[in-house]
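Appendix B. Extra example for self-study. Work through it before the problem class; the solution is given directly after the inputs so you can check yourself.
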Amino acid sequence: MATAIECRGLRKTYDGKVEALRGLDLDIQAGECFGLLGPNGAGKTTTIEILEGLLQPTSGDVRIFDQTWHENERTLREWLGISLQETRLSEKLTVRETVELFASFYRQPRPADAILEQLSLTEKADTWVGKLSGGQKQRLAVATALVANPRILFLDEPTTGLDPQSRRQLWEIIRTFQKNGGTILLTTHYMDEAERLCDRLAIIDHGEVIAAGTPSELIDRLGGHHVVEFSVNGTRNAQPIDVWAALVGVESVRTDDGLVSLNVRQPHLTIPALLDAVESQGAELLHLTTRQASLEDVCVRLTGRHLRED
Amino acid sequence: MKAELPPISSALDSDGRSRLPKKNAPWSAYSHLLIARMRELQREPEIVFWVFVFPLLLALGLGIAFRNKPADVSSVAIVAGPSAQHTLEALQGGSSKFRVDILESHDALNRFRLGKYDLVIIADEQGFTYRYDPARPESVLARSQVNEALQTSAGRRDPLHTNAQASSEPGARYIDFLIPGLLGMNLMNSGMWGVGFALVDMRQRKLLKRFVATPMRRSDFLLALTSSRLILMIIEVGLLLGFGILVFNMRILGSWFSIILLGCMGAICFGGLGLLTASRAQKIESVSGLINLVMMPMWIFSGVFFSYERFPALIQPFIRALPLTALNDALRATILEGASLRTQGVRLLILAAWGSLSFVLALRWFRWS
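Solution. C-alpha cells for the complete assembly:
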C-alpha cells in the first residue's frame, strides 16, 4: 500500500509563544479512512490545515503521495478535495452554480450533475444556498470537495451540528468515496462516528499524538474492555474512591459528577466485590450499569476530558 | 510517479460506465468567477439600489433643488405706521417684484429673525431704516433691490445708461457641474465598497480560504473581480449621463470613448484602493471604518458638490493630489469642455499612480485567510 499522507515532526507556534503543535507524526495509507480525534483546542484543525497546505508549519515535513507543498503545490491542489470547518458559501448562488464554480477550478472535474445526484442535492440544484438546511449545506460543502475528483478527501468536522439522519447520509457518502479507492482524513469529536467510519485513528491532545491505531486496538489497549458505572449516596468513608480502586480487577477509576466509572477486565469478579463494598460502607446504590468500553472511554482516560464539553 | 498512485475509480459512475469528464478550458475558472460575481450582484437588491438608483435620486434631488430659476422674489416686511401703505405701493409699482406685508413691529422683527422675511422696512419722518442681515445673501440683495425701487419711485434719475442681458445655457448650470462630480463619487464608492467590502466579507466567511484550497489561480480571482467592476462602471456611467441628458438636457461635449476610458481608470484606481483597505482586515466592521476613513477627505475636498477652489490656497496642492479630485476634474473637462485626454496628462498620471501603488502594496500585504 502506498503512503498517501506522511508528516514528521510537525510543529506550529503562533505569535512565537502559543504552541499549537509540538512534534506531530502521522502516516496515512492510500485507501484508508483516517480519523483525527481530540478535545477542542487539541490541534486537530491546525494539523489538517497544515496537511492541506493552507498553513505553514513552524517546522516539520509534509509529503502527500511523495510530493511536497513547496515543490508541487499546483499538482497537489488538483489531488485534494477539501471541506473546511465553517465555510459560508455565497448565499445568493444556487447549489448547481456553486458546484459548477468549484468544478471550473480543476483541470478534470467530475460532472456537476453526477455529484449533485450522488449527494442527493438534485432536487435542490436551483435553490439558493442561503435557503438550504444545515445538513444540505454540509452536503454541498462536501460536493464542492468531491467535484474535484480528488484522491484524498479532507473533512474538518463534517457532521458537527447535524441531525442523525444527515450524519448517516454523510457517512454513506464517505464510505462510497473510500470504496472507489479514495483516501479520507477527517476530524471529528463524535466517537461513534470515528468508531464506525475510521480504519485507523490518532488521538491528539496538546499538539501531540497520544495514541494511534485501529478503534478496536485502542479500546483493547486503553479502554479496559468493560466499564462498570454506578452511583451511591451516604458513604461512610471520606475518600470512597480509594475503596473502589482497591476492588478486585479494577484497572482505573474515574468520577464524573457523582457517577463512578471503573475500568475492569472481568465484571463477574468485580461486581460482587463492589456490592459487598457498598454494603460495608453503609451506602445506598442508586444506579449500576455495565457495558463494553468505547472510544469515548479511551479518550477520557487519555485526555481527562470529554471531547464535547459544550 | 503517477503510475504508483492508487487507481481512482470515482470517475466511474454508479452505473459502472466510465464517464471521464471533459477537461476544463484555461479560462474556465475566470469566466465562472466573473459570472458568479455578476449573479451575486444582480441578486442583491441593496447593491442595485446603492450603485444604480441612489446616484440618480441624488442627481434628481439636487438638480431640482438647485435648478437655475429666476432668483427668488424677495420678501419684505413693512412695520405698520402712517406711511406704510404708501411705501407698499411704491415697492409694488417698480420693476422688481417683491412679496410685501405690513406687520406690527414686534411681529415683523420676530419673523425676520426666523428667516420668513429678508428685510424689514421701518419708515419714520427722516426716511427709511432697513433692517437686514449682512450674512444672508438674499437679505443683502433685498436691501439693495428695495433701496433701488424706493429711490426710483421717489424720483431718482440714474446718470449712466445701462443694459442687462439674461444668459443661462446648458453647460454652465449647477446640474452640469454636479453630474460629473456624482459620477466620480459613485465610481469611488462602488470601487471601494465593491472590492474592499466584498473581499473582507469573503475572508470572514472563510470563502477566500476555501478558494485557495483549490487549484484556482489567484490572478483569475482578482481579474474576475476587476472585470466585474469595469462592467458595473460602464452601466453606472451610461445611467448617470443618460439621466443627465434626458432629464436635464445635459450636453456631452467630449467623446464617449474618452469618458469610458476615464471611467476605467477611476474604477481600477479605486478598486486598487479598495483592495488595499481589504488586504488585512478580518471583519467587515473594521473594513467599513477604514473605507469611510479613506473616502471622507475626498467627499469633502474633491469638489463633488461644490468647487474645491473655495478651500484655502495653502491646501490646494494636497486637494489636487487626491485621486477623486483628478477624476472629477478630468471628467468635467471631458464632459463639459470636450477636452481631449492628451491635455490632461497630470490628472491621468495621478490616477495611475494611486492605482498602481495601491495594487502593489495590496498584493504584497494581502491575506487569503
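Self-check: Chain A has a mean pLDDT of 89. If your reasoning did not lead you there, revisit section 3.
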